[in-house]
Amino acid sequence: MGNGEFKRRGLVRSGPNFAMLECMSDDILQRVIKVVAEAQKLPIEKVTVDSTFEELAIDSLDGIQLLFHLETEFDINIPDESARQVRGIKELAEGVENLVAQKNA
Amino acid sequence: MSRRRVVVTGLGCISALGPNVDAFWQRARAGESAIGPIRNLDMSDVRFQNGAEISGFVPTDHFDEKQLIPLDRFAQLAVVAARQAVRQAAPEWSDAERQQTAVVTGSCYGGKTSEDEGFRDIYSGLNKRGRVHPMTIPRLMANAGSSWIAMEYGLQGPAYTVSTACSSANHAIGQAYWLVRNGMCDVALTGGCEAPFTPGSMKAWEALRVVSGDTCRPFSKDRKGLILGEGAAMLMLETEERAKARGARILGEIAGFGMSADAHHVTQPSVDGPALAIERALADGGVDGAAIGHINAHGTGTPANDPVETAAIRRVLGAQVDKVRVTSTKSLHGHALGAAGAIEAVATVLTLQRGEAPPTANYLGLDPECDLPLILSPEACDAEYALSHSFAFGGLNAVVLFRAYRA
């Protein structure tokens, strides 16, 4: 993990962060959707903001590969624990947006 | 313990000689060597240039893109070979039989392709983020071959992988044979798989100074070393009773297995260890040396192996050695390390079944220390029993005794 610093901030935070959905960056959402579609070998139109991992047949092994590709795409480090709580595209994009914001802060 | 006859009802093989068993045998029986310049790697910084690579293997012809993500090349080859063996055997598994079918594979060093690539990028700084692909561990585990074969067919019996360097596949086949013979299972898929062509691996072999600068010349004067090969081969084993009951075509029989350790030196072979393994295979099969008509030798073509193997064969067989016809098919398909014994098992089963023996290629003339009745051009074979030898670095030896199937 490069600099050795292992941030324990969540990919997804509960409560207040939900409000961020209202202003979620469409750019980030579209990039997340593209990464998911490519990693899962799915037609991009099958992946929407409301898709759940269950609907997309994303299992735990697929999940860790998604995290790998998202880390590359957004140049972020996604911590293990909070990543486990993510269940769908909406949460995933929100979490990525948080981490991108933290990186740029 | 009940002792049951164990027969071979399916063979699969992908190697430098070709993508399947028919292609393999067509070239092997003619003594056509598949050794040539290594093409899939940059060899400009390596002292040796030749190998026995599989040409024209396109993974997406066998797997969809998503299936390929966790599959290293060596495991892809394992599954491809297993599919061929299963297709030929058409095993007609009941659910209960799937639950107890064994899968035992051999591999010398597992998913080296993925490991080497991932680690190279980290150590060299090529990978700026300092990460490896998340599937690196599942790809590199040596048991991937067994695991993916078990998953492919829903086989829930004893499944594991043996790693004893160049003897891996023979140890695996011997274990599977004993599981079936001794009543642990009725059916087993067994063999070996290896994909050793990676940059780091080539440098390691170069440093050991056992790879030939030209080609593989087993038992020949002026032999210069081994030639690395890649591939996988699988055998479907079942009890004779089961095979006959379902009217399966029986290709051959495994009749005995012996193993030993040199307990001597890590790379310098001894005569004692191999001789013990040969004696034990004969004793396990209840036959004496006079019964042996054919040997598929370990025959790596290294200066060290071949005289020692010659001495071991002569020690065990004594005067009977003149009745035996010996070949080393490594001169054709290279030394596929953990898959070697399995590829040679396919050759040995076919030799006994079809009554023709593949010759040893690239022979230049007699080395008095390697004086064996070698097969140097295609010839008929009427042997009933044949031995297939594997003698590994680390001094671990495994010998399988095959028998032509007579009902």
CATH fold-level assignment of chain A:
Non-ribosomal Peptide Synthetase Peptidyl Carrier Protein, Chain A
- How large is the count of helical segments of chain B? 14
Query: In DSSP terms, counting alpha (H) and pi (I) runs of 4 or more, how many helices of chain A?
Result: 4
Task: State the major sheet of chain A.
Answer: none
Distance between the termini of chain A: 20 Å
* Percentage of residues in helical conformation of chain B: 25-40%
For the record, what is the CATH homologous superfamily label of the largest domain in chain B?
Thiolase/Chalcone synthase
Oligomer: heterodimer
Number of strands of chain B: 14
The total tally of domains of chain A equals 1
Class computed from helices, strands and strand pairing of chain A: mainly alpha
CATH topology of the largest domain in chain B: Peroxisomal Thiolase, Chain A, domain 1
**Overall 3D shape of chain A:** globular
What does this protein look like?
- The complex is a heterodimer of chains A (105) and B (407).
- Chain A is mainly α and 105 residues long.
- Chain A has a single domain, classed as ACP-like (Non-ribosomal Peptide Synthetase Peptidyl Carrier Protein, Chain A).
- Chain A is 48% helix and 0% strand.
- Chain A is built from four helices and no strands.
- Chain A has helices spanning 26-40, 60-74, 80-83, 89-104.
- In chain A, helix 1 crosses helix 2 and helix 1 (26-40) packs across helix 4.
- The radius of gyration of chain A is 13 Å and the shape is globular.
- Chain A starts with 25 loop residues before the first helix and ends with a helix.
- Mean pLDDT of chain A is 80; it is low at 1-21.
- Chain B is an alpha/beta fold and 407 residues long.
- Chain B has two domains: 6-245, Peroxisomal Thiolase, Chain A, domain 1, CATH 3.40.47.10; 254-403, Thiolase/Chalcone synthase (Peroxisomal Thiolase, Chain A, domain 1), CATH 3.40.47.10.
- Chain B is 34% helix and 19% strand.
- Chain B contains 14 helices and 14 strands.
- Chain B has helices spanning 21-29, 65-68, 73-89, 95-100, 112-123, 136-140, 144-153, 168-181, 199-208, 240-245, 272-285, 305-317, 330-333, 340-354; strands at residues 6-15, 36-37, 50-51, 102-106, 159-162, 187-194, 231-239, 252-261, 292-296, 325-327, 356-357, 379-380, 385-392, 396-403.
- Chain B has a ten-stranded mixed beta sheet, with helices on both faces.
- The longest helix of chain B is centred in the first third of the chain and has 17 residues, at 73-89.
- Chain B is globular and about 65 Å long.
- The two termini of chain B are 23 Å apart.
- The chains are: A mainly alpha (105), B alpha/beta (407).
- The A-B interface holds A 1-2, 40-41, 61, 64-65, 67-68, 71-72, 75 and B 64-66, 69-70, 129-131, 133-135, 138.
